[in-house]
Specification:
about 325 residues, mainly alpha, MetI-like fold, two-stranded antiparallel sheet, UgpAE/MalFG_permease, MetI-like, cell membrane
C-alpha cells in the first residue's frame, strides 16, 4: 500500500499564492496605472499620426524654401525671418481681421439659429420632429463638395435661382448679378450662408438633446408659479444647459476659424481670391500656389497658436463642467 504525503504539490502552492489577497500598495498601484494603460494606445497613435507632421511643420517655419529647394537642394535656415515677414505684412493683418470677423459672424449666427431650431423642435409633435431631425441629419451628412455645387447653381449670375427670384419681385438691379465675383462683401455673404447652413444641424441637434434632458418637474413647478413658455425657456432651460451651449460655441469658433473647403471652392467660382482670402486659403495659396513653404508653415503655426488658445478655453470649460477644477 502506497503511503500518501501531506506535502502540498507545486500547483496547490501556486493556487494558494493567487488566492491570497493583494496588499493595499499593489492595489493602489494597479488602480493608478489602469487609466494610463487605457490611454496609451490612443496616445501612441495620435503621436505617430500627428507628432511628426507637427514637428516637421515647426522646423519648416524656421527655414527658407525657394525654387532651388524644389529640385532637391537642402533648405536654408531662416531663423525668425518668416515670422517677421508675416507680422510686418499688412496683407496678413487684413486676412487675419477678415478671418476673425467672418468667424464671429458665422459662429454667432449658427449658435443663435441652432438655439432657435432646438427650441422649435422641442415644441413640435413627434412625427414632425422626426421629419425635422431627419432633414437636419441629411443636411449635415451631405458632402461639402456636393452641397457647394448646389450653392453655386443657386447664385449663378445667368441661371441662378436667387437672381431669378429677386428680379421677379421687381429688383432689376440683380439681373445677371455675380454674387461671388462682384466684391468681397457679397462673396462673404454667400460664404457665411454656406457655412451656417452646413454647421446648423449639428448645433441644433446637440442643443435639442440637452433641452430634452431638463427635468419635467422643474418646468411644472415654474408653470404653477405662473411662468410663461418663453420665461421657462429663457430663465430655466437655457441657463441649465449653459455648459453645453458654451462648449459647442467654442468648438464652432474653432471650426469656423479654420474653414478652407467652402471658401476655396467659392473662390474658384468667383475669381477674386486675393480679396476674399481667409487664413486657411491664405496658407494654401502661400504654400502650394507660390511654393513658399517656409512662410506657409509659419502661417500654419500662427493659426495653430490661435487654435490652442481656443482649445485651452474649451478644456477649461470641460473641467469646470465635470467638477474637476
Amino acid at each position: 500500500m502506497t503511503q500518501t504525503t501531506d506535502r502540498p504539490t507545486r500547483a496547490s502552492k501556486r493556487r494558494s499564492l493567487w488566492s491570497q489577497p493583494m496588499s493595499r500598495t499593489v492595489r493602489t498601484t494597479r488602480r493608478g496605472l489602469a487609466p494610463w494603460m487605457l490611454l496609451a494606445p490612443a496616445s501612441v497613435m495620435v503621436l505617430v499620426a500627428l507628432g511628426y507632421p507637427l514637428v516637421r511643420q515647426l522646423i519648416m517655419s524656421f527655414q527658407h524654401f525657394g525654387l532651388e529647394q524644389q529640385f532637391g537642394r537642402p533648405a536654408e535656415w531662416a531663423g525668425l525671418s518668416n515670422y517677421q515677414t508675416i507680422l510686418t505684412d499688412p496683407y496678413f493683418w487684413s486676412v487675419f481681421l477678415k478671418s476673425v470677423l467672418f468667424c464671429a459672424v458665422t459662429a454667432g449666427m449658427t449658435m443663435l439659429l441652432g438655439i432657435a431650431f432646438a427650441v422649435l423642435m422641442l415644441r413640435l409633435n413627434t412625427l414632425v420632429r422626426a421629419i425635422f431631425n431627419t432633414t437636419l441629419i441629411v443636411v449635415w451628412a451631405m458632402p461639402a463638395l456636393a452641397s457647394l455645387t448646389v450653392w453655386q447653381w443657386l447664385v449663378d449670375p445667368r441661371s441662378g435661382l436667387l437672381n431669378y427670384f429677386l428680379t421677379s419681385i421687381g429688383l432689376d438691379g440683380f439681373k445677371n448679378f455675380h454674387w461671388l465675383g462682384e466684391n468681397f462683401w457679397t462673396f462673404y455673404l454667400i460664404a457665411s450662408a454656406v457655412i451656417v447652413w452646413a454647421s446648423l444641424p449639428l448645433v441644433a441637434i446637440t442643443i435639442y438633446a440637452a433641452l430634452a434632458q431638463v427635468p419635467g418637474d422643474v418646468l411644472e413647478a415654474a408653470e404653477i408659479d405662473g411662468a410663461s413658455s418663453f420665461q421657462q425657456i429663457r430663465r430655466i432651460m437655457l441657463p441649465m444647459i449653459a455648459p453645453v451651449i458654451s462648449l459647442i460655441g467654442v468648438l464652432q469658433v474653432i471650426w469656423d476659424l479654420r474653414v478652407f473647403t467652402q471658401i476655396y471652392v467659392l473662390q474658384q467660382a468667383g475669381g477674386i481670391a486675393s480679396e476674399t482670402n481667409l487664413l486657411g486659403t491664405y496658407v494654401y495659396e502661400t504654400g502650394i500656389a507660390k511654393g513658399d513653404y517656409g512662410v506657409a508653415s509659419a502661417l500654419a503655426m500662427v493659426i495653430l497658436l490661435l487654435t490652442l488658445i481656443l482649445t485651452g478655453r474649451y478644456l477649461q470649460m470641460l473641467y469646470r463642467q465635470g467638477g474637476m477644477d
